[in-house]
Amino acid sequence: MPTPKIVNLIPPHGGTLINRVLTGEAREEAAERAAHLEAIILNDLNLADLEMIAGGSLSPLTGYMERADYESVVHHMRLANGLPWTIPVTLAVSTEQASRIRVGQEVALVERREDGERRLAILEVHDKYEYNREVEAQHVFRTTETAHPGVARLYRQGEVLLGGPIWLIEWPYRAQHEFADLRYTPEQTRSLFVERGWRRIVGFQTRNPIHRAHEYIQKTALEIVDGLLLHPLVGETKADDVPAVTRVESYKAILAAYYPASRVLLGVFPAAMRYAGPREAVFHAIARKNFGCTHFIVGRDHAGVGKYYGTYDAHLIFDEFTSQEIGIIPLFFEHTFYCRKCGAVVSSKTCPHDKADHLILSGTQVRELLARGEMLPVEFTRPEVSRILMAGVQRRVAEGA
Q1: How far is 109 from 123, CA to CA, in rounded Å?
Q2: Residue 207 appears among annotated catalytic residues
Q3: Is 43 an annotated catalytic residue?
Q4: What angle do CA 66, 72, 76 make, to 5 degrees?
Q5: Catalytic residue (one of 208, 263, 367, 387)
Q6: Over 60: is that where the pLDDT of 3 sits?
Q7: What is the pLDDT of residues 309-335, one digit of tens each?
Q8: Which domains are delineated in the chain?
Q9: pTM of whole model > 0.90?
Q10: Is the omega angle on the peptide bond into residue 383 within 30 degrees of 0, that is, cis?
Q11: Which residue among 142, 153, 183, 207 is the active-site one?
């Protein structure tokens, strides 16, 4: 009988996979305490971060950042201990609420919905500090303009940050009710990779439906690894982004028809988009390392918005860290497109033909075609995806979205 294959997965960022989820008596006791604590209402970004901290997606973070980590990340893209980290993960409150909170006490982290409030977690307040939103905006987003969605959200939040470890009592609503069959924690994806015997896994981040260019990139990467983690982001995005439910439906359709089932795992990534471009590319890579990926696809203008970032900034930022520090291997891909003369999906690295021969559709053009009931060109995306997107767009139009 053959000896079972031993699979050693990549270590999580910082070496330890974090789990801040309470169970049993500890959970019951925390729930009782939380009922009597000062309540902090979480926004969508806070809720997504809470879910990722608790489940280990943001290892080695055990909670929201204290001042030393926050300032080091904003100015140097590292935690205070020197570990690479590019995005502040913080919890902001108003000056008025902060005046009621002392360092050393506990507060309850609360989700407010139409059907009431739920106390999801306890935060042990280890730090309370003021910060400069413009400085954070300039360093993290490279702009202070409120036209940038990440900057606008930053400016809307409170004036004081609370830092300290969290303990989860109950998962947020989305974690329990949206894509429950695909919401794998890092521990779960790692177990699935071991079951499948995958050693080398490439992660693919997306907030868009898969078109033929994505398919080309994913399948090219699959040639050098054992498996693909297709990991669409399903947290808060811009209003004009395709809704997560429509995107996930399209992913399932294309995987069923055009990908080998034994080499792909579809799971959802609960993060909210920050649109921080290069810094978010590193942030996304580190998170996928925690999920067990050894490689991560970084597209051109990864996590970009508008004209705030240079075309290749999301690639170049990785040069600011050593490969040992990051741990996961970034795979840099050019913008790809269908060339009529080549008769294939190509990139500027492989195609010698003029732009007139390239089929490239903007997001606006795609939405206009679908809203008119016109199928997208098969060279741009698979018919199965077109039909799902068309139904989604027409549904939004009918609802007045």
Answers
A1: 7
A2: yes
A3: no
A4: 160
A5: 208
A6: no
A7: 999 999 999 999 999 999 999 999 988
A8: 24-177 (3.10.400.10)
A9: yes
A10: no
A11: 207
